[in-house]
Design goal:
The longest helix is centred in the first third of the chain and has 35 residues. α3 packs antiparallel against α4 and α4 runs parallel beside α6. This protein is globular. The chain is mostly helical.
Length: 305
């Protein structure tokens, strides 16, 4: 019970830092539109991503140099086994993917939807659940790194598959945000703005919710990059459950905003996330009917014999 209370308080403390609480004395950090807050988050993500990129390149060079020199005892003089070197390379790749994701969330919004951009557009403070999931996934990885570095040796291709899916998912999400432009929002809209239109072109011709599709597969694939078997399954279930609740609510809102267009759009597009069915009833297809002309001349009555 004491441990649970401690973890809850620690998580709340971290989340409060991400939300920039108690910064009221600093105007540029006090609100989400403050330039100081935007600059600080950008700086942190840029530095973290760059450090991990340099580390990844250094490890790749060291592993290549080890193979070429037939040196099998250590990796870049840190006395790490090859398994731990590869695991740390996976960690660097994961952190780069996370930093790129959050930076693109902000910059794509800033370019294609500038009226809605603020510090929250980074999504680093998405929610308490998001922060908790991030921290627990790191716990699984580092426990394996320290105590079980060879535990997933038989799944050597898993991180590579995850990396390919992560890149594709990131492209899908960023492309969806750019295509939607000012009609995209991180918060579900229940009132129609003047510039809010139903986007049906580009990637929206294929996927009905491409930004959700991108995030769903991205969240799972980055766990594959880490080699987190447990969290790959947990993230798949958690992400699916989140969108299973969110998508019907959003589609209900879209039906209210676009009562004539959206049901027809649903009929010709794919959800993209498995086992989630739309609650929208597609508009019925009206088939042309043949009109039989009727004679306007009076009928002549037969004479009786």
């Amino acid at each position: 019970m004491a441990l649970r209370t401690f973890l809850k308080r620690a998580l709340g403390h971290i989340q409060s830092r991400l939300d920039f609480e108690n910064w009221s004395d600093h105007p540029q950090f006090a609100t989400k539109i403050g330039l100081g807050r935007v600059a600080l988050v950008t700086l942190c993500l840029g530095v973290i991503g760059t450090l991990h990129l340099v580390s990844a390149l250094f490890i790749l060079f060291s592993l290549w140099n080890r193979r070429s020199s037939d040196e099998n005892e250590e990796c870049f003089k840190l006395y790490w086994s090859t398994e731990r070197c590869i695991l740390f390379l996976q960690w660097c790749t994961y952190m780069i993917a996370v930093c790129v994701f959050h930076l693109l969330e902000f910059f794509v919004t800033a370019i294609w939807n500038p009226t809605m951009v603020d510090a929250d557009s980074f999504l680093v403070n998405h929610s308490l659940s998001y922060t908790a999931a991030f921290l627990t996934s790191l716990t699984e990885f580092w426990l394996r790194f320290l105590f079980f570095p060879s535990s997933l040796a038989i799944f050597k291709s898993l991180p590579w598959i995850g990396l390919i899916i992560a890149i594709a998912s990131q492209v899908i999400r960023s492309l969806a945000m750019a295509t939607a432009g000012e009609s995209f929002n991180h918060v579900i809209q229940t009132q129609k703005k003047e510039n809010h239109v139903l986007v049906t072109d580009g990637i929206y011709r294929l996927f009905r919710h491409p930004s959700y599709v991108g995030f769903f597969y991205w969240s799972i694939s980055v766990q594959m990059v880490l080699g987190n078997a447990i969290h790959t399954v947990l993230f798949a279930f958690t992400s699916w459950n989140f969108f299973h609740r969110r998508i019907p609510y959003e589609e209900e809102s879209l039906c209210q905003l676009f009562p004539n267009e959206y049901p027809s759009y649903v009929a010709g597009t794919w959800m993209g996330i498995p086992f989630i069915k739309s609650t929208v009833v597609p508009a019925p297809t009206v088939e042309p009917t043949m009109v039989v002309p009727t004679s306007t001349e009076p009928q002549q009555s037969k004479k009786k014999d």
